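Q: Could you fold this chain for me?
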Amino acid sequence: MKTAALAVLVLLFSPIAFGQEKPKVFIEAADSVVASSWLFGGSMSRVSRYSAIVSEWSKACPEVEITNSKDGADYDAQFPGDGVLLFDKNKKLVLSKSAKWNPEKKGIKVACAEIIKRAEKK
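A: Sure. Below is the predicted structure, expressed as structure tokens.
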């Protein structure tokens, strides 16, 4: 019974109940360069960070929908290497954070928090 009451409360106060859609974000990420086994004549290779960032974002920030359409997005989150840049729909920079240690997780957290804060003001 308590579970049903809690579910009703969650639905009543969710953004969908008020006719609001989740904010949408378009994600861009620079590739990383990785060295492999220099002792055995290894080489440098590029590794795409995009899928890792999208996966982490979907777990850490379910309140914001990821879109593959830059034109349909409310925000553009860019991960250039060691931080995050967040632009709004009008291409205005709204957040610039350096996150030297674990830029994906830290960058996702601050970008997500900024998007949610702006969505709540609307």
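A (continued): The longest strand covers residues 24-29.
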